[in-house]
Design goal:
By secondary structure, the chain is mainly alpha-helical. Among the domains are: 17-178, 3-Layer(aba) Sandwich (Rossmann fold), CATH 3.40.50.300; 186-238, no CATH class; 458-577, Serine Threonine Protein Phosphatase 5, Tetratricopeptide repeat; 820-872, Arc Repressor Mutant, subunit A (Orthogonal Bundle), CATH 1.10.10.10. The protein contains 47 helices and seven strands. The strands form two sheets. Strands 2-3-4-1-5 form a five-stranded parallel β-sheet, sandwiched between helices. Strand 6 (302-304) and strand 7 form a beta hairpin. Helix 25 runs antiparallel to helix 26 (498-515), helix 28 packs across helix 29 (558-572) and helix 29 (558-572) packs parallel to helix 31.
Length: 879
């Protein structure tokens, strides 16, 4: 028990500074507990800490024979005396101990002896799991009650010590360092690998190794030794079947357990996570919760599941080891155990776990039956990715034998924009009906699947067949009716028939709520919100959207739809920071199964917000990414939104070349040549959005007269439609365009008529952004006292109504973006000097001047001298 000084570097060769610092805090606590499974590095950590501990330290590495009280206290007394020469050992009387001296009295005597020791003293017990003697534990418990402030105990153990710790915790006298703290970091694994002679691990192998071992020191070391000998193939094959791992778990974990506990632990290897109720149900027993607590106290690589009290999981390597042992020792029972587990998880609604167990059962019909139930639940909750993940790997013959599964697959493929595959499987259904009458789905279900696929594939060009009304007939299945109403509501929205869309969506919402279709119900909420917004009922839309959003679980797919509507509300009310934060959250959640409406809205609004913050490159990149997504279907409506936004951003940035590129990409010159906006037509969103893109482009080119004609045609078309919000944007652009030819009085009169016609609450951020220059006109009304605005409106749009920009115009000369020499060159450029004149004035070579200009253009995200000038000069506005 002599102190080891100096410390010899341990076998793992890794000094873990953060843990040493943590253990160094033991001087502030009566007891420090190092509690972790075997091989976690407890002894190594103690060894390193002892080497730097300046105080008197007694190190007691325990063994099985130390579980005898006489042996334990004799060795402890001798160890303290070896470090503290005047330590009074009279408290320890072997004869009295043998004659059953009271543990409380012995603990008090021991405390008195320690009280008389000068200076700080640390007593470290290593491998304390050997100590089970009640006498020893009681003495230590009494000692801790009255431990002198200068004496500190350190216990390193695989198991929880056998005395209560609650009082120490309450008094803040306990420091606990557990297996989570002792995990190796990626950097430490690299250090250990280097110490063992291995070549540096690449990040992929390192992540894989940490995922398998969870930073467990012994497991990492075994894997790295194999890597040093056999290379990367050893890491690829590393699992619970490694001979060293098998030997380790076989001896350390299983053989120390009594047979009933060993069998229990082995069977728990069946589960990814487990609690007492699950174990009782599957193993047909009682009292499992108590056994799990006992196993947890033994620190047998049993880890608590975060935020799930009473639930546990195994270390990944032990889990793998136990599963392999189960196949050998409990093969005859496995089918029964899996069947019970599947039943248990299905009752809890944990479909993933239920199916994982059911797929291992001999009875395939059990698996298929549970799969049907799970798919039905996933469709209702919008988890289409789960449906695809489970159904796509199934053989085609199996799907044909289970038409319901085929139906779920077609629905998921349609809603995930995988239209070719959806058509293929729909044809399989038709072929099944031809081969075996009555073996197919109900005709109404088949009809609805075709309706769903047609709408999502063709978007605004979709025309439902006349037979769709049969799906709403009396006696029709409630779910079919509810889902059909939602599909038709969306079709009406695409055609700008807002009243019909609202009516169908509202009826669908009620039926979907009865059926438990939470995802489609949220989709109808989105439809209703868009209808109110487009019809100019902004206040009504905002209230309902906020209520729906606040009442939705963020973990559910329905949240994406409701959060998308909330993003629009926040953006249009000029709460831009909140809108961007929610957009960032949604960007991590929208996927191939999300509504295209949601995806396009999030990408475009986030791009608009980023562009406003001068993050032009990222804003453009988002629009490019959205364009790629939209290639998966007939999404002319959303493509036109991208076109309008791309042109708007290029116009605001003064990027003439970029505007020309957008015009060519969306074929605007040819459309103008063909007279696409010369005559009024029934409202079409693609036509209107592309028309606005043309208006921006033409204004930048000085073709104001042609731009005005387009706006007049768009306005006339919108006057005949229900899309009042879009009409407002077009009319706002008209006012901005005609302002230079009108007097101040005429401008104010026109603005007043517009505000009176649409209502001030509908003049929101979308209007200000999509009609550049219009905000200045509203400001002039307010400043002239001709427009009274509510306090709430003034608060939301203070950026415009106070005549101040929340985000100041970008000034590259003052921003620090350009170097000192680049600023000098740029100022010459702004004053109109040629490249040669700039070289003469600055005294630098012409080639250097050109090099500086190239860097300036790159930093300003422009491509020419003209664009650079336009990028920093204020644009004209309605005033």
């Amino acid at each position: 028990m002599d102190r080891l000084q100096p410390c010899v570097m341990s076998a793992n060769g890794v000094l873990r500074q953060s843990l040493l610092d943590l253990l160094g805090r033991s001087e502030d606590f009566a007891l420090t507990l190092l509690l972790a499974p075997a091989g976690s590095g407890k002894s190594t950590l103690l060894q390193h800490w002892r080497a730097r501990c300046a105080a008197t330290l007694v190190h007691y590495p325990l063994q099985a024979r130390d579980n005898d009280p006489l042996c334990f206290f004799r060795h402890l007394a001798e160890g303290i005396r070896a470090q503290v020469s005047d330590f009074d050992t009279s408290w320890f009387n072997p004869l009295a101990l043998a004659s059953s001296l009271s543990p409380r009295l012995l603990g008090e005597l021991f405390g008195d002896a320690l009280e008389r020791v000068d200076g700080p003293l640390f007593i470290a017990f290593d491998d304390f799991q050997w100590i089970e003697s009640r006498s020893i534990l009681e003495v230590l418990a009494v000692l801790l009650e009255q431990l002198p402030s200068h004496v500190h105990l350190i216990i390193a153990s695989r198991n929880h010590p056998g005395f209560a710790l609650s009082q120490l915790k309450l008094e803040n006298r306990l420091l606990c360092i557990d297996q989570h703290d002792l995990r190796l970091s990626a950097e430490q694994v690299q250090q250990l690998n280097h110490h063992l002679g291995g070549q540096a691990l690449n990040p992929d192998y390192l992540d894989s190794l940490l995922g398998m071992t969870e930073g467990w020191v012994a497991g990492v070391k075994i894997a790295l030794l194999a890597y040093a000998r056999f290379g990367t193939q050893a890491l690829q094959r590393f699992n619970g079947s490694q001979p060293e791992i098998v030997d380790y778990f076989g001896h350390v974990v299983l053989r120390q357990l009594p047979p009933p506990l060993r069998e229990f632990l082995l069977c728990c290897g069946l589960f990814e996570r487990f609690d007492g109720a699950l174990c009782d149900h599957v193993l047909q027993r009682t009292g499992s919760a108590m056994l799990l607590e006992e196993l947890a106290e033994r620190q047998l690589f049993l880890l608590p599941v975060e935020n799930q009290p009473g639930s546990f999981r195994f270390h990944a390597l032990l889990q793998d080891f136990l599963c392999r042992r189960l196949l050998i020792e409990e093969y005859a029972r496995l089918d029964q155990l899996h069947s019970r587990a599947a039943d248990y998880f299905m009752q809890l609604g944990e479909h993933e776990q239920a199916l994982q167990h059911a797929r291992h059962c001999a009875d395939q019909q059990l698996f298929l039956g549970l799969l049907e139930q799970s798919c039905a639940a996933w469709v209702r909750s919008g988890q289409f990715g789960d449906i695809l993940r489970w159904l796509e790997p199934l053989p085609e013959t199996l799907l044909l034998a289970q038409p319901k599964l085929l139906g779920w697959l077609i629905a998921a493929l349609s809603l995930s924009r995988r239209f070719h595959q959806a058509h293929y499987h729909l044809e399989l259904l038709d072929g099944l009906q031809a081969r075996a009458a009555g073996a197919n789905l109900e005709p109404a279900t088949r009809q609805f699947l075709a309706l769903l696929l047609g709408l999502f594939e063709q978007d605004k060009d979709f025309e439902p067949p006349p037979t769709w009304r049969e799906l709403l007939g009396p006696g029709q299945d409630l779910e079919i009716r509810a889902c059909t109403l939602a599909v038709i509501a969306y079709q009406h929205l695409l055609a700008a028939r807002l009243q019909e869309a609202t009516r169908f969506a509202s009826e669908s919402k009620q039926l979907l709520a009865q059926c438990g279709h939470s995802f489609l119900e949220s989709y109808t909420d989105l439809i209703i919100a868009l209808c109110h917004r487009n019809a100019g009922r902004a206040t009504h839309a905002r209230k309902q959207v906020c209520l729906d959003y606040q009442g939705t679980d963020p973990a559910s797919p329905a949240w994406v739809n409701r959060a998308t509507a909330m993003v629009v509300v926040l953006y249009e009310q000029n709460q831009l920071d909140e809108a961007q934060q929610l957009c960032d959250e949604l960007m991590a959640m929208v996927n191939s199964s999300s509504a295209t409406e949601a995806i396009a809205t999030v990408y475009i609004i986030l791009s608009r917000l980023l562009h406003r913050r001068q993050q032009h490159a990222r804003a453009s990149r988002l629009l490019d990414q959205l364009s790629c997504i939209l290639q998966l279907g007939n999404y002319a409506r959303f493509v036109s939104q991208v076109a309008q936004e791309s042109m708007r951003q290029a116009w605001l940035g003064g990027k003439a070349a970029a505007m020309d590129a957008v015009a060519q990409r969306y074929d605007l010159p040819a459309r103008l040549q063909a007279g696409e906006w010369e005559t009024v037509r029934p409202y079409d969103e693609s036509w209107e959005r592309l028309g606005l893109a043309c208006v921006y482009w033409l204004q930048a080119r000085g073709a104001q007269v042609q731009a005005a004609r387009i706006l007049k045609v768009l306005g006339a078309a919108l006057q005949r439609s229900e899309m009042r919000a879009r009409r407002l944007i077009v009319e706002a652009n008209q006012l901005v365009l005609t302002a230079p030819t009108e007097s101040k009085t005429q401008q104010l009169e026109a603005l007043s008529r517009l505000v009176e016609a649409h209502g001030i609450v509908n003049i929101n951020r979308s209007v200000f952004d999509e009609a550049p220059g219009f905000a200045a006109g509203v400001l002039s009304l307010v400043q002239a006292g001709l427009l009274a605005v509510p306090d709430k409106y003034r608060e939301h749009y203070a950026e415009f109504l106070q005549g101040e920009q929340t985000v100041p115009p970008f000034d590259p000369l003052a921003s620090g973006l350009l170097t000192g020499r680049e600023v000098e060159v740029f100022e010459c450029l702004l004053s109109g000097l040629s490249n040669t004149q700039i070289s003469d004035k600055t005294g630098i070579a012409l080639s250097t001047t050109k090099w500086h200009l190239k860097n300036i253009y790159s930093k300003l995200n422009v491509s020419s001298r003209t664009e650079a000038i336009l990028a920093v000069r204020p644009r004209a506005s309605l005033s």
